[in-house]
């Protein structure tokens, strides 16, 4: 049986803790995987930013990308490598570049997803450019912001149509707050979205390949307290709805790694934010959930690299839209969407691969999470963002939370 090496590249920005875990666990596991008649080992490397020739070959089989969404040099290298070298990347870079929150709202509304009523408002101010004045004078119509507020209903949120990380988001409770928020929006193009007032559960679902993690979320807490440690907080039926919702979005837009936030009211989950194809992966915010993130990321990366999973370069909306046109309740459509999404992520083949080749990965991960190397990784992240007098306290707090999550990995990946 030929021995081959699969190369995994990490495309990183301000990522500190999870790459150390990814590298440390993979190195300790010393995996030798059998696939396609080969005996496969793995190497992982942090990618550097440098000039590149379009004719230069790509040495990676897979890139775990955390930079493309905002760094053009890496984005263009990735697009070139997909087209010319057959590289697999999370996530589809053309989709990340073009499918902002506005597009994702529109696409999922068309499939029947119960997204709260949403309106796009014209910009308050514009960048000066040729023909702008003529265009606005000829075609822009005055509108009544107060009437828009009455029609949409309070409370509501104003948020950038392409934003992320809660940046530029305003909660609006009345007409005066709407006027003030719009005045402050300046040149940003904004959505107005009715609040899901009276919701009883806020869930954040993260998908990595066909794997989904549900986390109870409290946006009113400071960042380190928003992802609650609570487990089994919703029924199996609700968990299936959220998993299908997350996988539908990810498969539709070609995103291997993305998150979906939804609010439950009167038994219905209303997704409010789900164009996040670079979700928070840092121990200082997800703490007890961090071990799952790292191991799920490793499992999907190893499967993709070992099996030479082909990159879907083009998005194919039609099969989902065909389901969406059926005259059946949305719940029935969602079941079909979830099934189709799992097919696109090779869920059955992935499960078989993990059962056959990655049985020892959790044990290696648990050993690493309990090590001084993990404690050091946590501290490095904390020291990067916390004031010096809080580093000791929060480093220990997050390290202990990681131990809780690590102890649950056998259950998570049973």
Protein model, in words:
The structure is a single chain. This protein has helices spanning 17-29, 72-85, 93-98, 101-110, 132-139, 145-152, 175-184, 236-253, 283-286, 290-307, 318-324, 330-344, 347-357, 361-369, 372-385, 391-407, 409-412, and strands spanning 3-11, 33-35, 38-46, 62-65, 88-90, 118-121, 156-160, 170-172, 190-194, 201-208, 211-216, 257-265, 268-273. By secondary structure, the protein is of the alpha+beta class. The chain has 3 domains: 3-98, Rossmann fold, CATH 3.40.50; 117-194, Dna Ligase, domain 1 (2-Layer Sandwich), CATH 3.30.1490; 201-412, no CATH class. The strands form 3 sheets. Strands 2-3-1-4-5 form a 5-stranded mixed β-sheet, sandwiched between helices. A 4-stranded antiparallel β-sheet has the order 6-9-7-8, with helices on one face. Strands 11-10-12-13 form a 4-stranded antiparallel β-sheet. A hairpin with a 2-residue loop joins β12 (257-265) and β13 (268-273). It is globular and about 70 Å long. The chain starts with a strand and ends with a helix.
